[in-house]
Amino acid sequence: MDFAIKLAFDILAFTSVMVLIVLGLGVIASMMGIFNFAHGELVLLGAYTVYLSDEYGLGTWPGVIAAPIVVGLVGLVLERTIIKRFYAVPIIAMLGTYAIGLIIREIVRGLLGGHYKSIPEPISGAFSVGNLDFSIWRTFVIATTMVVIAGSWLLLSRTSIGLRVRGALENPMLARACGISTARLYALTFAFGAALAGLAGALIVPLYQLSADIGIRFLVQAFLSVMLGGVGTFEGPVLGAIAVGAMAAGLPWVVIPVLADPLVFVIALAVVRLRPQGFITVGRL
Asked: Which residues have C-beta within 8 Å of that of residue 126, sequence separation ≥ 6?
């Protein structure tokens, strides 16, 4: 029983990381109709912001707080200068974001000198429940993810900004005819998705060593989660992330670890083949 509880906690912690990454990716894909192939590098920038904060003696907390702001601003600049030019041709937009991600990754690789960097947890140690010890930082990550999910849902479903976003998503031409600036909404949405990616990077970098490829390890699983959950909904990508995250964290305990990742893709692709529209097809953003 103790082992099962500990395993469930570890799966929940990893799944929380996936949800944070997928939430930003899913919002951008649902709103703009493009997959942001630079999303993994936005996660990297969030992690790198925490590294810089710690490297210059400020500690990790200022970096964690600054990461979503910094990466959100980077996303806003990218959307306003480059990405907005390619909305009419989604394939070119995806290729453009891939090129942007490649440039960001190699710049960070050069700054890191190709090395791996360890970042201390802002809250170290563990707390005990019975005979079990639980990481305080992992618990904080889980709690933060729940707060972000609730806040994002309230923002998109209970505010005037969310109403405009849903209107622009459902019918962009009608939204523009009603005086809604869809260009501004696209920019804000992309910045919001980037900020979530930056927050995810800031929260996971103490759990994983920082390298230029830290975002790549999650990117494919994030895209798979969005496909599995369904584009165009808030709940879909979250459910997809929970499913993929639980499989990715749990399967290595059931099968040989080297087979776990391929098995995750096989299962997820089989579900997508049987249900191409994803888990949820109603309830627009």
From this structure: 133, 134, 135, 136
